[in-house]
């Protein structure tokens, strides 16, 4: 029985990056032996165990065979006879197919260290093409390591093209696709993820609405540079699409509610935000009320952030509408409802009177 660190832990240590999660591989053991040592089984598809003290995951060495469509169409075989080399060859990229033993010796049968040094993302074997999810994974790694100068190997990009035209990407569930997209959006250069997908034809299959939208990627790049959270990055990516297209993408990928909501509101209101400096008071009030700036001020602030990133992505040096919109929101929030209530107004009459006072506040704000 031999235990190795594998995958990302070895890769990132060699790159000098922080190692957060460690994947452990056990070679030469049976399920019974693992149970006897106190490991707790958790794997549904193949034998994975939790360490009795650390709680870290330990997987038995395994091989796999394609048995159906999609990323889940595989049959796994785990036994003490499966070697380290047999387990590593089923992995996606050479830089993820290295192992390290307890003495610190690195096992690198597929030249992953050389590809790390050359800054190349290269597939391990032709079996790469059997799993369509790997198209998204490679694009995500390209986004993560773009700051270090990594690029996708030509032959790997060609395999990704073959997968894209094969129809296999359509077998990916919305949940699996979104998980990769979500992680990619939070990388240092998320626009690279979509650039790689476009280069291999996968963007046309998964997000055809964005296939010709270069400005969306420039806006997303700005959102990453400004360290914005996920829902703002998602809205930045979709900001230039028509509301109907945004709704379609949201539903197809089952994006989280916060992401869906901000993206759709941005698509509906971006033009008004950009025209804020010249909007009549009534139109400006309508915009503010659509975002419910009284009870949900942060949502309007998020919208302003997307508008600002879009302007920067379009080459503008600044976005003066941002402070103007914030001031307008503060002006209407400052209107006190108490005098109207004390005057005996209720129901619809109160609502109309409050709206009128807020309109006056905006007119005064514009005059100032």
Automatic annotation (TrEMBL):
<dbReference type="InterPro" id="IPR012006">
    <property type="entry name" value="CCA_bact"/>
</dbReference>
<dbReference type="Pfam" id="PF01743">
    <property type="entry name" value="PolyA_pol"/>
</dbReference>
<feature type="binding site">
    <location>
        <position position="11"/>
    </location>
    <ligand>
        <name>CTP</name>
    </ligand>
</feature>
<feature type="binding site">
    <location>
        <position position="23"/>
    </location>
    <ligand>
        <name>Mg(2+)</name>
    </ligand>
</feature>
<feature type="binding site">
    <location>
        <position position="140"/>
    </location>
    <ligand>
        <name>ATP</name>
    </ligand>
</feature>
<feature type="binding site">
    <location>
        <position position="8"/>
    </location>
    <ligand>
        <name>ATP</name>
    </ligand>
</feature>
<feature type="binding site">
    <location>
        <position position="8"/>
    </location>
    <ligand>
        <name>CTP</name>
    </ligand>
</feature>
<keyword id="KW-0808">Transferase</keyword>
<feature type="domain" description="Poly A polymerase head">
    <location>
        <begin position="4"/>
        <end position="122"/>
    </location>
</feature>
<comment type="similarity">
    <text>Belongs to the tRNA nucleotidyltransferase/poly(A) polymerase family. Bacterial CCA-adding enzyme type 2 subfamily.</text>
</comment>
<dbReference type="InterPro" id="IPR050124">
    <property type="entry name" value="tRNA_CCA-adding_enzyme"/>
</dbReference>
<comment type="function">
    <text>Catalyzes the addition and repair of the essential 3'-terminal CCA sequence in tRNAs without using a nucleic acid template. Adds these three nucleotides in the order of C, C, and A to the tRNA nucleotide-73, using CTP and ATP as substrates and producing inorganic pyrophosphate. tRNA 3'-terminal CCA addition is required both for tRNA processing and repair. Also involved in tRNA surveillance by mediating tandem CCA addition to generate a CCACCA at the 3' terminus of unstable tRNAs. While stable tRNAs receive only 3'-terminal CCA, unstable tRNAs are marked with CCACCA and rapidly degraded.</text>
</comment>
<protein>
    <recommendedName>
        <fullName>CCA-adding enzyme</fullName>
        <ecNumber>2.7.7.72</ecNumber>
    </recommendedName>
</protein>
<feature type="binding site">
    <location>
        <position position="11"/>
    </location>
    <ligand>
        <name>ATP</name>
    </ligand>
</feature>
<feature type="binding site">
    <location>
        <position position="137"/>
    </location>
    <ligand>
        <name>CTP</name>
    </ligand>
</feature>
<keyword id="KW-0547">Nucleotide-binding</keyword>
<dbReference type="GO" id="GO:0004810">
    <property type="term" value="F:CCA tRNA nucleotidyltransferase activity"/>
</dbReference>
<dbReference type="GO" id="GO:0001680">
    <property type="term" value="P:tRNA 3'-terminal CCA addition"/>
</dbReference>
<dbReference type="InterPro" id="IPR002646">
    <property type="entry name" value="PolA_pol_head_dom"/>
</dbReference>
<dbReference type="InterPro" id="IPR043519">
    <property type="entry name" value="NT_sf"/>
</dbReference>
<feature type="binding site">
    <location>
        <position position="140"/>
    </location>
    <ligand>
        <name>CTP</name>
    </ligand>
</feature>
<keyword id="KW-0819">tRNA processing</keyword>
<keyword id="KW-0692">RNA repair</keyword>
<keyword id="KW-0694">RNA-binding</keyword>
<keyword id="KW-0548">Nucleotidyltransferase</keyword>
<keyword id="KW-0479">Metal-binding</keyword>
<feature type="domain" description="tRNA nucleotidyltransferase/poly(A) polymerase RNA and SrmB- binding">
    <location>
        <begin position="149"/>
        <end position="212"/>
    </location>
</feature>
<dbReference type="Pfam" id="PF12627">
    <property type="entry name" value="PolyA_pol_RNAbd"/>
</dbReference>
<feature type="binding site">
    <location>
        <position position="91"/>
    </location>
    <ligand>
        <name>ATP</name>
    </ligand>
</feature>
<dbReference type="GO" id="GO:0000049">
    <property type="term" value="F:tRNA binding"/>
</dbReference>
<dbReference type="GO" id="GO:0042245">
    <property type="term" value="P:RNA repair"/>
</dbReference>
<feature type="binding site">
    <location>
        <position position="137"/>
    </location>
    <ligand>
        <name>ATP</name>
    </ligand>
</feature>
<dbReference type="InterPro" id="IPR032828">
    <property type="entry name" value="PolyA_RNA-bd"/>
</dbReference>
<keyword id="KW-0460">Magnesium</keyword>
<keyword id="KW-0067">ATP-binding</keyword>
<dbReference type="GO" id="GO:0000287">
    <property type="term" value="F:magnesium ion binding"/>
</dbReference>
<feature type="binding site">
    <location>
        <position position="91"/>
    </location>
    <ligand>
        <name>CTP</name>
    </ligand>
</feature>
<feature type="binding site">
    <location>
        <position position="21"/>
    </location>
    <ligand>
        <name>Mg(2+)</name>
    </ligand>
</feature>
<dbReference type="GO" id="GO:0005524">
    <property type="term" value="F:ATP binding"/>
</dbReference>
